[in-house]
C-alpha cells in the first residue's frame, strides 16, 4: 500500500499548533534558555503548549512502555510529516530544549476518572498526566538556565489544552458489563462527579503556576460511527440519549469556566464548544465539503463503526469528504475546522474569549 493510503495522526492539538505556529510562538523565554537574544518587538502568542487528554490528543504516549490496545502506531495510521508537533511525554527524546515549547501528555483511552479505559489496558489517566507534567516542570527547574521569575513568566504565558471526558462515557458509563458507574450514579450525578474530579486536577495545575486554560467540550458522542453501529440506531441516526448525557457534562463544564474565572481573576479559563461545532457540521455537511457523516472512512462492520481501523486496512479514497476517520475519531479536515474555530471563533464557539484573544493577555 502506498503512502497516500495512510491517514496522519492528525489531532486537534496538531491543528492548533499549526495555527499558532503560523502566527509565531513567543520565543523570548526559549531565547533566554538557549543563550541567544530574545526577538525584538511585542511578544507573540504563547510561550509553550501543554496538552492533556485522550486519543483525540495523544500523539504517541501509549506507544512507549504501556501495555495498551489503544494505539495507532500502524498503517493506515501514520505520522504527520512537515508539521510542528509536541513531543510525547513518554518519548525518550522529550528532554532538554525539546520540551521548551511544550509537551503532550495525552493518552488514548484515558479519562477524568482513574479507572476509565482500563478495559483497553494501561494508559495515563488525567491524574497521572498531571503528575507527568510535574516531572517536566522539575526538569525545567533543575536543568534549564531559568530563574524562578523566568519560570513563573513562562508558565503564566503557556497554553494548557485539555480534552477529556469522552472515554468516561464510551469506556466507562456506557459499558455496564465492565463498569458499575451507571448503577451507582444517575446521569446528572455522574456528570457532577466528573466535573468535581476535573476541577481538582485543573486547580492542581493552577497551583503549579499555569494560568491559561482551554477545555474542549465533549462532542456529540451519539453521532460517532461506533455508537450508531453498536446501538443499532435507526437509519444511521444519532443516539439521542447518549448526546443527552454528554450535554449534561458540557453544561457543567461551561459553568465551571465561569466559576474559575470569577475565583481566579489572574488566570483565564476558556470553554471550547466542540459539541456545537460538530453539530453544525452534522446539520450542514455540504457547507463544509463533507458527503459522509454517519460512517468511518476506515473501520469494521456496520457503518465501519463496530471496530476501529485494523492494521493494513484499506481506507476510503475521499477521506476529506468523510466527517469520521474511524469508529471514534474525526478526520483531519474536521480537526482543522475545530482548531480554527477555537482560535478565532465567536463566544458561541469559544467562551468567553477565543485563543487568539487569550494570547494577547
UniProtKB/TrEMBL annotation:
<feature type="coiled-coil region">
    <location>
        <begin position="123"/>
        <end position="150"/>
    </location>
</feature>
<dbReference type="InterPro" id="IPR001087">
    <property type="entry name" value="GDSL"/>
</dbReference>
<dbReference type="Pfam" id="PF00657">
    <property type="entry name" value="Lipase_GDSL"/>
</dbReference>
<keyword id="KW-0812">Transmembrane</keyword>
<dbReference type="GO" id="GO:0005576">
    <property type="term" value="C:extracellular region"/>
</dbReference>
<comment type="similarity">
    <text>Belongs to the 'GDSL' lipolytic enzyme family.</text>
</comment>
<keyword id="KW-0472">Membrane</keyword>
<keyword id="KW-0175">Coiled coil</keyword>
<dbReference type="InterPro" id="IPR035669">
    <property type="entry name" value="SGNH_plant_lipase-like"/>
</dbReference>
<dbReference type="InterPro" id="IPR051238">
    <property type="entry name" value="GDSL_esterase/lipase"/>
</dbReference>
<dbReference type="GO" id="GO:0016788">
    <property type="term" value="F:hydrolase activity, acting on ester bonds"/>
</dbReference>
<keyword id="KW-0732">Signal</keyword>
<dbReference type="InterPro" id="IPR036514">
    <property type="entry name" value="SGNH_hydro_sf"/>
</dbReference>
<keyword id="KW-0378">Hydrolase</keyword>
<protein>
    <recommendedName>
        <fullName>GDSL esterase/lipase</fullName>
    </recommendedName>
</protein>
<keyword id="KW-1133">Transmembrane helix</keyword>
<keyword id="KW-0964">Secreted</keyword>
<keyword id="KW-0443">Lipid metabolism</keyword>
<dbReference type="GO" id="GO:0016042">
    <property type="term" value="P:lipid catabolic process"/>
</dbReference>
<keyword id="KW-0442">Lipid degradation</keyword>
<feature type="transmembrane region" description="Helical">
    <location>
        <begin position="12"/>
        <end position="34"/>
    </location>
</feature>
